[in-house]
Design brief:
This protein is mostly helical. Helix content is 73%, strand content 0%.
Length: 210
Amino acid sequence: MAVMGEALGSGGSGGGQHRSAIIAAAIEITGDEGWSAVTMARLADTVGVSRQTVYNEVGSKPGLAEAMVAHEADRFLGVVRGAFGRHPGDLPEAIHDAARDVLDLASGNALVRAVVAATPGADTEFLPLLTTRGDTLVAEAAKVLAEHVRAYRTRLTDEQTDVLVDTLVRTVLSHIVQPCRTPAQTADGLAWLTARLLDEGPSPTPLRYR
C-alpha cells in the first residue's frame, strides 16, 4: 500500500509503534472502498496486530477519523514548509511551489478523494468531522503560511498580509475540492498575483471593512 509506506517512512506523532501503520491502512481502505469499509478487525488483519492493539493505538472509530485527518493535514503543511525552505529569498516562487505541491498531493490523496467523492445519502461520516474541524484546519494552514510570508519582511501591513494569506489558502482549498485548472496553472496565477502585489506595494488606503 503506497499510503502505508509513506506513513511508515514518516513516523507518527505520538502513540505506539503500530499507530502510523494503522492510520495509513485506514486511509488506504477509505480511499478505495469508503469509510464504512474500515473496521477495527480489518485494520488488525491488514497491519498484522490484534484488535486490542488497534484500539489501544487509535481508540474509537471517531478517534481514528480525527487521527487520519490530522495525519494528512501534517503532510500538507509539510510540503508548504518545504516549498518556502527552497525559496528563502523569493516569496512569489515560494507561494508558487507551495500551491503546486499541495494541489499535486491532493490530486492523489486517498482521503481527499474519499471526501470529494461523497454524495448525499452516501457514506459521509467524514463530512461532519471536516465541517466541525474545518475552521480549525483553515486557521492552522493560514497561521503556518502567515508565519512564512512575514519572514520575508515585505512592505505589507499585518492586515494586508492577512488578506493575502486568506486569499491564498481559500483559493487553494477551492481548487482541492473542485479543480478547474492544473496545479501548475493555479500556482502560476497565485504567484503572479503575489508578485503584482509586491511590485505595486501596499495601498495607502486602510482596509475599510472590519
